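#random but structural
TW: two for the price of one
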Amino acid sequence: MARTRSIESDSTAANDKSEQILQGAMQEFLTHGYAGTSMDKVAKTAGVSKATVYSHFADKEGLFAALVERLAEEKLVYFPVPETEPAVALRLMATNILEKNRKRPEFMTFVRLVIAESGRFPELAQTFVRNLAKPGMDRLTEYLASHPELKLSDPEATAQIFIGSLVYFQLTQEIMHGKDIIPMESERLIESLLHLILSPPSNS
């Protein structure tokens, strides 16, 4: 029993240390960008030794990937569960994505970082798309395909349109500071998206 408690304690300590490093890494990436961040800086900001950082993450790219994976785990809770009807699920997902991201300025700044660094470090952008964008897109595609009553000819393309519209809205409104130039209420956007997907196709 004592041995079991010791193993559990060690695991908890490791998880806490890993989270401490990730928080320090996030702060450094957002402040200095990917190129300007070093494992030394991460260690200092996280309050741990450089050896401790390397014991959890092999290199800076792995550290960045771990941050993306953690964000992906948080974001995927926004997507609907199969037993929820489309009118409710799609509205909830769209609202959660727009509202929760707006209330998480560090996430929006992180997206800016990925976009800014994508030219020099395309693998970072691919890590973001692979771990965050694609799983959400796949889940929504599967959900839409499981509801034949929607009569969608291409659930995957519809998922791209739905999520793409939300991403573009945040890109122009929040990331590129365009809300005064092309003002749009989020509820107005959501209503139009739901109308496009939920309205039955015309027989004429």
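TW: number two ↓
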Amino acid sequence: MRTLFRRGWLPASLLLLSVLSSPAWAGNTPCSGKKGGIDRCDGDLFLCNDGSISGSKKSCSAMFGNKSQARPQAFVGDGEGCACGTGSFCTGPRGGVYCLTPGGTKSYKRK
């Protein structure tokens, strides 16, 4: 053990350990940052704590092992019945699919 201290392996190994455990290696997670984390799944979509849909391409039902939550998505023409978390989405004038957050803003679904 003394030879490891003399040769400088301990500082090098501590540096390597700190680099590998840094948050940058953790990767992107759905609903990160200002969205406040994952609230629940809406089929394959991640619903964030701020009420919006995550832009993640990952499948929420596959990640959490809850395939029973996957349901057919209904597209509603008007803005009344497309609240996030209900499974219903509205289609915008240029073909974008979105739901309305509790704050009233549109959260678009990734294509």
